[in-house]
Amino acid sequence: MNIRSLTTAVLLLATGPIASALDAPARLMFKDGSHDDVLIVDYKRGYVTYKLNERDLNRTRKGPEQIESIYFYQSPIFAEAMSLYQGRKYAEAKTKFQECQEAYKTIDTAPNNYGTLGGFYAMECSRRMMDLESLSSEMEKFRKEGLTRENHIQQLEVNAFWEAVRLKDWDRLDRLAQDWRTRKVTGSQRAQISYCHGLALEELAKKNPKLMTKALNAYNITLSADFTASMELVVGAANNALRIYDADPEVKLAIKLWKTEDENQNSGGYQRLMEANALAKLYNQAGFSAVKPLSAEYKVFLKYNKPKEDTAG
């Protein structure tokens, strides 16, 4: 039997009622070089209790002195949840991820198990839906021992930014962003950090207006850091940036003076008006409207196109 057929056969054992999914299909790699495809019933402190198939009445328990590693075959519940997640159906995905987390709670300290991964992605659903109260509560209860991937572990640290947003602790958030400025992170994490920092800088700019430019810069980083995978944040950053342009007195003046003899194309307001025009165009061209339609007040920016330079001569 080839590995594809073997994987399919093992997955079939875990389909059906959720009660059967409590036994996790996995391959045990032993230190003597052999391996077994099993259903894991329990995992604690490196000791695995398993059976060979669904009908097996016997239980075998082996520990770290015998087991080299464990590879969990993908849970059908998790696969269904991930399909919903990738389709940005986060509320439905979260329900399935939580179901997965509950189904495999007896192995939730095993490396890279689907109980822990279900809990992790349930939190990611909360984050992507901007349900920060739920995210905060879920973080407190989450058991992270089963996480092995660096980007997953680091995401738990990045969630501190969202907690600061929840608490509206803008000074702390600004300090966090400074501390993380040179840290190596994924595109998604950089987008999150920059978005949260933009929110903080907008609030801090109420006392120090010069920080509004830095807020725009932070939102621009969000727009470029993870353009496709972090669509909700990208659309949020675009709307926040357009809101800043719309409220800018110098941009309002540039609009008032548009195509009059007093128009000054070298002014800061004119340049920011051109930035707003470019962003509004990007909004439509990149399909952001499918996530959130461009509001009428921001559609106005589409009218202010920079004149093409005369190249004749």
UniProtKB/TrEMBL annotation:
<keyword id="KW-0732">Signal</keyword>
<feature type="signal peptide">
    <location>
        <begin position="1"/>
        <end position="21"/>
    </location>
</feature>
<protein>
    <recommendedName>
        <fullName>Tetratricopeptide repeat protein</fullName>
    </recommendedName>
</protein>
